[in-house]
Automatic annotation (TrEMBL):
One of its GO terms (molecular function) is DNA binding. Keywords: DNA-binding, Transcription, Transcription regulation. InterPro entries: HTH_LacI (IPR000843), LacI/GalR-like_sensor (IPR046335), Lambda_DNA-bd_dom_sf (IPR010982), Peripla_BP_I (IPR028082). SMART domains: HTH_LACI. The keyword Protein transport does not apply. Pfam families: LacI (PF00356), Peripla_BP_3 (PF13377). This is DNA-binding LacI/PurR family transcriptional regulator. Residues 2-56 form the HTH lacI-type domain.
Length: 336
């Protein structure tokens, strides 16, 4: 097995120079760097990452906490962020919390025990005063979910605007009985979407109807259940803002089973612009979220925090959302 001394001998350089190249030291000429890399390749030498981590006090690993791997939004976030991690020579550890406070704390302990260099939170289960002390051990970056009082970077989307443009679209089509779907807990993302929903209703002097609110909306099966619940109402909604494409797909597929026409009897708006929106018939009107931009920015900010060691500093990076109109709200060729 080749050693660092073998690499130095073949490259005709000192062991110190080889070590500097392996550890990406900035003060090494490109010529010497090439000599070392060629020697390592010829000898099949692989640096000992564990030893390198001990010397640099870095693990070169970042943990990404997500609530649900099966949700296509988070699946894409994982893929995009893993690409960003690889480009920076880092590995991404995926930690699924399943909306559990205990699981979230267990994963945050990875930072405390120095098993990762930083943590990216895409959802927040615990109160921020419970999470904040972990900043003693490393950086935390919020991506998607956010907490206004947190003195950490936040890469997020304008969720209030997303809820607003979705609902305004339905109102402009003449709907006044609009249902609203939400998750099982009041995250800041969910609260902002609801605020946007209510803002649009208020602009059109339409009252918020509590009986048109449906909770625990996450999956296709949840969408099926919600459609069945709608059918039991004496006064039925003519449109629904689902807050998620999976829920929207479930509502549409179940509507077909019950003879409910989309969009004539019920207009449906999703959220996320997942692939399923163009696979379901009719295709789903939805809100596009720039997931790749958000993932890359979150990892870029994380790398800056790892280098600077400035963990407590509030920064907000907010991205715009876009309404994509399809056939679940308007028949093809009708909407302008």
């Amino acid at each position: 097995m080749a050693t660092i001394e073998d690499v130095a001998r073949l490259a005709g350089l000192s062991r110190t120079t080889v070590s500097r190249v392996i550890n990406n030291h900035p003060y090494v000429s490109e010529k010497k760097r090439v000599l070392v890399m060629n020697a390592m390749s010829e000898l099949g030498y692989v640096p000992n990452s564990s030893a390198r981590s001990l010397r640099s006090q870095k693990t070169e690993m970042i943990a990404l906490l997500i609530p649900r791997v099966m949700n296509p939004f988070f699946s894409e976030l994982i893929e995009r962020m893993e690409m960003a991690a690889a480009e920076n020579g880092y590995q991404l550890i995926i930690c699924q919390t399943k909306y559990s406070k205990k699981k979230e704390l267990d994963y945050l302990n990875l930072l405390k025990t120095r098993q990762v260099d930083g943590i990216i939170l895409s959802s927040i289960q615990n109160d921020w005063n419970v999470i904040e002390p972990f900043l003693e051990y490393g950086p935390i970056v919020l991506c998607n979910e956010f907490e206004e009082g947190a003195q950490v970077p936040s890469v997020r989307l304008d969720q209030t605007y997303g809820g607003y443009i979705s609902t305004k679209h339905l109102l402009e089509l003449g709907h006044r009985k609009i249902a609203y779907c939400t998750g099982g807990y009041k995250s800041n993302v969910a609260q902002c979407r609801e605020a946007g929903f209510r803002k649009a209703l208020a602009e059109f002097n339409v009252p918020f109807q509590e009986e048109f609110t449906f909770g625990d909306a996450f999956t296709i099966e949840d969408g099926r259940r919600i459609l069945r619940d709608m059918l039991t109402l004496k006064e039925k909604p003519t449109a629904v803002f689902t807050g998620g494409d999976e829920v929207a797909a479930g509502i549409i597929t179940e509507a077909k089973r019950h003879g409910v026409k989309i969009p004539e009897d019920l207009a449906v708006v999703g959220f996320d612009n997942q692939a399923i929106t163009e696979l379901v018939e009719p295709s789903i009107t939805t809100v596009n979220q720039p997931i790749e931009d958000m993932a890359r920015k979150a990892f870029q900010v994380m790398m800056e925090k790892v280098r600077s060691k400035r963990f407590r500093h509030k920064e907000i990076y907010e991205y715009d959302l876009e309404l994509i109109v399809r056939e679940s709200t308007v028949k093809q060729g009708v909407y302008v």
